[in-house]
Amino acid sequence: MHESRRGHETFEHTADMGLRGWGPDEKTAICEAAMALFELMRGDEAPKPEMTFDLGVEANSLGELLVEFLNEIISIADLNETEPVDIEGASLGPRGTGFRMIVKVRAAARTGDGERNGSEVKAAAGYGAYVRRRPDGTWVASCVVDV
Amino acid sequence: MGRVKTRKINEFLWEIPAEGDMRVPGRIYADDFTMKILREETQSVQWDALMQVRNVACLPGIQTASLAMADIHPGYGFPIGGVGAFDMDEGVVSLAGVGFDINCGVRTMVIDLPLEDIVKKKESLADELFRAVPAGVGSTGSLKLSLSEIDRVLTEGARFPLERGFGVKGDLEYIEENGVVAGADPSCVSGTAKQRQFKQIGTLGSGNHYLEVQYVEEIFDRNAAEIFGLRDGTVVASIHTGSRALGHQIGTDYQKILAAASGRYALKIPEAELVAAPIRSDEGKRYIAAVMAGINCGFANRQAVSGTVRKVFEKFFSLGEESIRNLYEVGHNNLKFETHDVSGTNKRLLVHRKGATRAFAAGSTGVPSRYAGAGNPVLVGGTMGTASWILVGTEKGMKETFGSSVHGAGRLKSRKGALKEYRGSDIINDLSAGGMAIRVQGARSAAEEAPGAYKNVDRVVAIMEGAGVSRRVARLRPIICIKG
Do A120 and B100 touch (CB under 8 A)? Predict the structure, then answer.
């Protein structure tokens, strides 16, 4: 894994693709995992963002929250025919016995008809999904997406 | 080596003995080479297909064995190539046994044209097919429908596009379940799923989905080939796609519902992605009704794509509709209610096939009458540069695998590994130099789907034949390949 304080990457899964984000806190790690998703979805250079959409997700655990969050992005991007580019702002806090995350995603309109070089991501799977604190005090968020 | 204990039954069959929480043994159709790959994989990456076979064997109500076909590779929860059949009263329905690409499958149509005619015009025909069939990420379909019409797609299946000019009436007889399953309930499918799908009927999609024009390169079972109307050099068009965004969203929506159900019913689930609900529970019934709607959507999508392909051929070669016939269509990510022999008694079961194809033998119920002497064609998608296969199931397969067989070659290298090793442009150039007309929406797709990223499909089908659960009928070689 990279040494920088925050970042993201994809990792090996035979049929699908693993996503991993890390950062100084759990919110950053989850947002970085989302950045890995955006890159996987678009493939090439990031388009210039021209709109934003808000989303809020709740879950009982941080691992479930990660999966919920990524799936919500996949659904909204498909419905709105947009390309998610980056995250403008996010908040994460407790909600009942679980967690709630609110995020503003910056996006661009999807261009062409299937011409981009990215992957069609079907969904984030719960398989092996986690958000954990590492021994050095930073956080990592990881899951597999079905492509 | 490896975390799961296995023992070799014979040259083509291995067993994971039922131990600990396992309710049945695991059985893997594999040769020594395949087992070596599976064991090595557990050393290099964290995903372990053998452990997944073992975990499925722990699910409540599973019957006979947790099975893996010869194209086994790691999935999430179930392995790809996995088959699990469950008792209707004590059993569960598991999301991982279906996956997110509900009723992904293959349709193969026979084109009554000399092979030479296709070869001569392959480049311009490839251009026409590439223009006509929407493919790639975010593409929209050729069948335009309103949001309110999507519920009809979910209950009518292949008939919906057929009645709108996509295909001919004779198509339905040669689709698994005649192109529509009972029990679909659109009210169990979310509005988000419907909204995502209504523009996507008639699209090929991305990833490993494809449209190929192929020819029969070699026949192995003359009798079955004759029944299917296949001869050396017969031209076919094969379409590999599924229920698109609707299926993806159904999986996403029910992942949460079944996770909650697993806790509510105190199911002993060995790992998170095997979330499940009792078949008879409200959650189980609703998920099954949603999957059935997804299956019908998959039938409708392939019918619409097939109808578009048919139109291209008819126009390009000035053919009448009788010149193109549906050989067969069968899914490989499905749930099915089926009756099978379990310890000498016929039982109604819920069969999960995740990357496995229904392979009902000669004389079985559900096989088209014209194919009664052979069984349903088992359509096995290969890789871009090599071959696809048509198999049939056997009586032994009906007993051992609940009438199931392989669905493809099975991945050997991860997508990320393939991207590191191959350049999409090189793959396209190599395949073109080898005589194939190839059109892809993105070079990334060509690299991820490089022939070298998959196992040798010839070896995979030979394992199934060697085990006596399938028989090889014909090997198909691609001439044109369209990928999203």
Answer: no
In a domain, B433, yes or no: no
pLDDT averaged over every residue in chain B = 94
Find, in chain B, the residue whose alpha carbon is nearest to that of A110. B138
- A80 chain-B contacts, CB cut-off 8 A: none
Active-site annotation holder among B248, B332, B340, B407: B407
In chain B, the number of structural domains is: 1
Nearest to A10 among B80, B411, B416 (CB): B416
pLDDT tens-digit readout, B10-38: 999 999 999 999 999 999 999 999 999 88
Q: Is B153:B160 a contact under the CB 8 Å cutoff?
A: yes
**Closest residue of chain A to B73, computed from CA coordinates:** A14
Three-state secondary structure of B249-317? HHHHHHHHHHHHHHHHCCCCCCCHHHCEEECCCHHHHHHHHHHHHHHHHHHHHHHHHHHHHHHHHHHHH
Q: How far is B95 from chain A (nearest CA, A)?
A: 10
Average pLDDT over residues B347-362: 98
Is A127's CB within 8 Å of B76's CB? yes
Quote the ipTM score. 0.84
Question: Does any CB of chain A come closer than 8 Å to the CB of residue B205?
Answer: yes
CA distance B116 to B109: 18
pLDDT in tens, B226-262: 999 999 999 999 999 999 999 999 999 999 999 999 9
- Answer whether B457's CB lies under 8 Å from B387's CB: yes
Taking the Cβ of residue B243 and every Cβ of chain A, the question of whether any pair is shorter than 8 Å is answered with no
Our measurement of the distance from residue B293's CA atom to the centroid of its chain's CA atoms, rounded to an integer in Å, reads 17
Kindly state whether residue B417 falls inside one of the protein's structural domains. no
> Per the CB < 8 Å rule, is A68 touching B256?
yes
Domain with B102, as residue range(s), is 7-412+454-483
CATH code of the domain in which B139 resides: 3.90.1860.10
- Report which secondary-structure segment, H or E, holds A125: strand A123-133
User: Topology of domain A7-146, per CATH?
Assistant: Archease, Possible Chaperone; Chain: A; domain 1 (3.55.10)
* Average pLDDT of chain A, as a whole number: 89
Q: What is the pLDDT of residues B414-444, one digit of tens each?
A: 888 888 899 888 999 999 999 999 998 877 7
Considering the domain boundaries, does residue B418 fall inside one? Answer: no
Q: Let me know if residue B408 belongs to a domain.
A: yes
Chain B CB contacts of A67 below 8 Å? 255
